[in-house]
């Protein structure tokens, strides 16, 4: 993607958590394409983060990598401090994208797995927002990556679905709290998306056909398509869109493809 010629976010600053791979990488790349300077957060894969930053810079954008292990106590505050040190004039856009998924039947979910998932998927976004509130500039944007599973009954990922439902609830409440500062807060809910997390689907043709068939378009979404929705919500065009969940699942479970 050529990062020149698009300027809706010119002069804006952005932090994308989990921005080195998958949907996060696509979001970081798209926001840079729109003119934002992007902090690409990563938890452990330094090589992937460096490649994302290099690709953005190579295409004419501005980005830098920043590490924080969101599983550890105080990590959200440390990440906020690091971002504020780079963006001394403030932050305009926060995209809470980092998340993990556990596959386990209800009877096999462990407390340890539960705690780790909720820490990364829900606790970290909340305390990151809290820590960044003084730095977030008026007319800013907060986008939380939810999932279509927040409203579906999927027994093998119950704690994941619950964490995303909590994230949507947080988005609505923060939208009301931050309205006086004209900071919009929304969630974006993808369905099955072509990322590393879903790579196992391709190994089983029957499973791939089933997952594709969840969408009325009979295919999984591309990370870039999710990033397009995020970019819209980050733009000036979305000034009156707040407290919403934007479904980017290709019509999951609306019915069979026509």
UniProtKB/TrEMBL annotation:
UniProt entry keywords in alphabetical sequence: Oxidoreductase
SMART domains: PKS_KR
Ranges for domain Ketoreductase: 12-191
Pfam annotation, one family: adh_short_C2
Gene3D superfamilies noted in UniProt: NAD(P)-binding Rossmann-like Domain
PROSITE patterns tied to this protein: ADH_SHORT
Family listed: Belongs to the short-chain dehydrogenases/reductases (SDR) family.
Name of the protein this chain belongs to: SDR family oxidoreductase
Provenance organism: Actinocorallia longicatena
């Amino acid at each position: 993607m050529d990062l020149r010629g698009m300027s809706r976010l010119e002069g804006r600053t952005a932090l994308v958590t989990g921005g080195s791979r998958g949907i996060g990488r696509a979001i970081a790349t798209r926001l840079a394409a729109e003119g934002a300077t992007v902090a690409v957060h990563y938890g452990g894969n330094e090589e992937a983060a460096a490649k994302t930053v290099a690709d953005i810079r190579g295409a004419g954008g501005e980005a830098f990598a920043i590490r924080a292990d969101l599983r550890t106590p105080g990590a959200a505050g440390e990440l906020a401090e690091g971002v504020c040190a780079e963006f001394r004039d403030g932050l305009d856009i926060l995209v809470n994208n980092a998340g993990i998924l556990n596959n386990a039947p209800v009877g096999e979910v462990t407390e340890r797995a539960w705690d780790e998932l909720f820490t990364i998927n829900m606790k970290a976004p909340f305390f990151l927002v809290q820590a960044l509130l003084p730095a977030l500039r008026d007319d800013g944007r907060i986008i939380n990556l939810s999932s279509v599973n927040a409203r579906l009954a999927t027994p093998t990922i119950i704690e994941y679905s619950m964490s995303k439902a909590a994230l949507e609830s947080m988005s609505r409440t923060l939208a009301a709290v931050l309205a006086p500062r004209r900071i919009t807060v929304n969630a974006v809910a993808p369905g099955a998306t072509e990322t590393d997390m879903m790579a196992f689907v391709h190994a089983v043709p029957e499973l791939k056909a089933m997952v594709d068939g969840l969408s009325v378009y009979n295919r999984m979404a591309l990370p870039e398509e999710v990033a397009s929705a995020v970019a819209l919500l980050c733009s000036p065009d979305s000034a009156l869109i707040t407290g919403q969940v934007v479904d980017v699942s290709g019509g999951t479970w609306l019915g069979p493809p026509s």
